[in-house]
User: What shape does this take?
Amino acid sequence: MLVIKDLHIAIDGKEIIKGINLEVNAGEIHAIMGPNGSGKSTLASALAGREIFEITKGTVTFKGENLLEMSPEDRARKGLFLGFQYPVEIPGVSMVNFMKTAINEQRKFKGLEPLSASDFLKLMREKQELVGLHAKLTNRSVNEGFSGGEKKRNEIFQMAMLSPDLAILDETDSGLDIDALKVVANGVNKLRTKNNATIVITHYQRLLDYIVPDYVHVLYKGKIVKSSGKELALVLEEKGYDWIKDETE
Amino acid sequence: MENSQEQILSEVTGSEYKYGFTTDIETELIPAGLNEDIIRMISARKNEPEFMLEFRLKAYRHWKTMEMPRWAHLNIPPIDFQQIIYYAAPKSRPNPKSLDEVDPELLRTFEKLGIPLEEQKQLAGVAVDVVMDSVSVKTTFKETLAELGVIFCSMSEAIREHPDLVKKYLGSVVPYTDNFFASLNSAVFSDGSFCYIPKGVRCPMELSTYFRINAANTGQFERTLIVAEDDSYVSYLEGCTAPMRDEHQLHAAVVEIVALDNAEVKYSTVQNWYPGDKHGQGGIYNFVTKRGICKGDNSKISWTQVETGSAITWKYPSCILKGDNSVGEFYSVAVTNNFQQADTGTKMIHIGKNTRSTIISKGISAGYGQNSYRGLVKVTKNAAGVRNFTQCDSLLLGDKCGAHTFPYLEVENDTAIIEHEATTSKISEDQIFYCNQRGLDNETAVGLIVNGYAREVLNKLPMEFAVEAQKLLQISLEGSVG
Amino acid sequence: MDSESHTYELKNEFIKLYQQNADFLNSNSGPLMNEFRPKAFDDFVKLGIPTTKNEAYKYTHIEEYLKGNYEVEFSVDPFRINLKEIFKCDIPDLDTYVVLMLNGSYYYDNQMPSLPDGIIVCGLNEASVRYPEIFRMHYGKYADTATDGLIALNTLFAYDGVFIYIPDKMTIEKPLQIINISYSFRNLRITRRNLIVAGSGSSCNIVFCDHTLCAHNYTTNSLTEIFAAQDANIEVTRIQNENSLSSHISHTFFHQEERSSVTSNTISLHGGLIRNNFFARLNGTGCESNHYGLFMGDDNQHIANFTYINHAMPNCTSNQLFKGILDENATGAFNGKIYVSKDAQKTLAYQKNSNLLLSPAARMNSKPHLEIYADDVKCSHGATIGSIDAEAMFYLRSRGITEKEARQLLMYAFAYEIINKINIEVLRDRIIDLVDRRLRGELSRCNNCHIHCQ
Assistant: This one.
């Protein structure tokens, strides 16, 4: 589904990602772990098309197409979803209006008729229940006045609404207490099918107790220095990142 | 009860200005008044080259066509410019080669002010140029600095010894036509400091000038010029005091800063001119034009000021951000107590691309004080990617004072992000009570809270100055709470 | 010729105009209005047309918009046009008492049969004769001709407008909708003078709509004095939608007594020059005064809002929020002032101005000023000028929303904060639609005009 070859990413002329190769297939869950500053969020944002990141080298294909040539919205409509680490607050834009616009843009892209108001509200309710997002939050402006946990839950809610083929969850666990973490993980697991894939980006192992990955990659100084099965996460939890640093340096 | 409170109050306010003494020293004065002959006389006294006299005369002729500015939120009594003495110099050898040649009375004066002129007695790492009335008395550490190519001397000396640099930069940031007081200064300025930091040099010590008004009926008109060449750095400090007198005295200074590519200049002021007594009698009228230009790319000019003195303050240290990616900063604490009035702030003129500016202004009003922030943030048409953040807060102590905020935002480029915030508040009774409960009296509590309020700005001052400024803040507000 | 001498010439033109028409003007208007003219004349001679040297007009070149060849009318509706044939408010379901105004005068055939007893709605000139007690007590009492040449000019040439009186304790459920129409065969100078008096404990909702029906140049100088007695509650909504050739200068004076509450909401959709001056004097304790504005400019429009909120008494609250969206070569200005006098303890006063610049040539100047002489107050102000937030744009686009639609959503969200403060639901919905279309560039420039001038 996603094939990354020798990807280099720079910001303001400074190279952050220094040659990454990664292949993600339908039905898989990949975890990308790494210490702070290793480039995890850069990778996630660049894949979603954030313009401040410059792709200096390499290719990325998504479902057989060149991802790097697409606008952020086209990537989203083709089924790529980014769960933001710090979801931005957008005062005045109501959640309902926001989601309705997003859903209908996606449907238009696929050649479908816009969803009727009642179907849309039904879908909203259904997905709210799935992620345990309080209905009153969807009456507010996008992320405005949401707590940290509510913002993250809102990201998973949007993911449920848009049902992407590939979801990249950037530090979705940060700032969550254990109950919120379970709810978020539960949502991700319920949305999992054999046709979609997930990349979970995290600093800690604890999220992976709830979302069990098929593969774990360690990103360090802009490179994937180790890839292995889910057991790698446990080693990292036990030993920290230092042994990787020692091994690579 | 009432009585004892009043007594304490008067004791405290009476003792507040500890720099109010005069020095009994023979002073050379020229006649009061202003005309072309007086200007020629000043220029002759200073043995100036012809170009300086011309500069002065042009400025004077222009000044005569101008009117006193009235737009500030200040109540300025009429000033008779013909009653002022424009040149006063302590009678002692100019340009003393060693301290032995300096009048011992002068040495004692500055010792008393906490500015010892002996290098060994000074704070390590601070070079001082000391100006009394119209002339520079002594500049310390000159030789040490000269080894690095740094020129630090009085303006009079610079005009004689480095005429090319002076010719090139004097009036280049503040032209003699700039405003009423800048024109007056250009015509009659007597002394001040000159700093030149050569390419690639990081000036190893703080450069500082201490200004002292001593003689009566005189005005002080100093002129400071700082030039920082490519890749250089300097931190400059300025302090000032004056004796307590019943008459008002005029101080109209001009400061110009030029920062070339990658240069950084930090300019800090602790302004403590005599503020007048608690009835508004006497005090300095402080009309100052300070402006820096970030001429080179990636250059930076940072103004920090603590304004506690003067009866009237009219002062807007500004930055012209011409070089791409250049940075301007303005940090200010201004206190007005009793009958003091201040109209102060800054101008940030964004011309270069990706230029940034920060303005933090903290006004404190007590007694009958009137405190105004006036600031302009201008983004010109081609200045893409500009960012400005302005925060100006006012604190009111007492119900007879005033706090005013007059920002101007002028934006001609759609890529700019300009933000201005301001608040006005008083110290809450809860805060005071909390301090009282911990054993602090009201004065100490207010001092503490005010210092906390001003912390953001005080932190920008060089260490030695910060401590001094903190004390000064506390002293200036004494008697403002009952 | 520099603008100084332009202004001077213009001033003399107005002086001459008055001198030539004073007799006619005086004979057509009630004596209580005429009483004010001599002082207005002296003040205008003294003050003239404000130039950019005047702090209040620093960013608005008023004289540029006032010069030119115009006709002037000094009497009430000389042609007896049947307005109802050529104009109909196109807001469906808006249930209001409609008052039509033509070129500054009260339309002769306004009919409001169901108006509750005691409430007076009539022409200003008529009121000056029929209700002299009320008129004398309030007319010219709040708008001081010595403070601004344009106020003097309005008072000098005033001959009609709308007069509204709400007796004590009376509430009008339906909004009063005043529709100001400019309609003529030539360029026209219009002077309009309104007076609204709300008795103690009364409550009303007034909607002003400004329209131009022809593609001529109109310069309108309109002034409204509003008196809110104790415990009165007044809401004023104004929709400004005039043609690109029109220049509209409006002054609104609110005089508030104890515990009165005033809310003004001004939506500037279109116009060549729009200059709104708001003055509120909080003259009793416990007043509330809210002033909101939304302006959208493109082409070469200039839109300026000026406020002066005078907290003269303790325990009052004021809020100001003005938002602007400027595109193409449009310029905007906000010139706000909160004045807290030394007795006005426990004042709460807030002021904010936010602006979006959408094009490289658009310009915005903002002057949010505070002048405070009391210590136990909470005052704050803020201003922002910038383009659309890049981070919010990316967030929307990452959810599959097109760039164009994302911009639209964000602009609309920006504007909604103001629109949401309008309490009349039908009107709010209509404005939501108008603003949405305006921001999409779909709104015909002059909404009700069939000429479609550009």
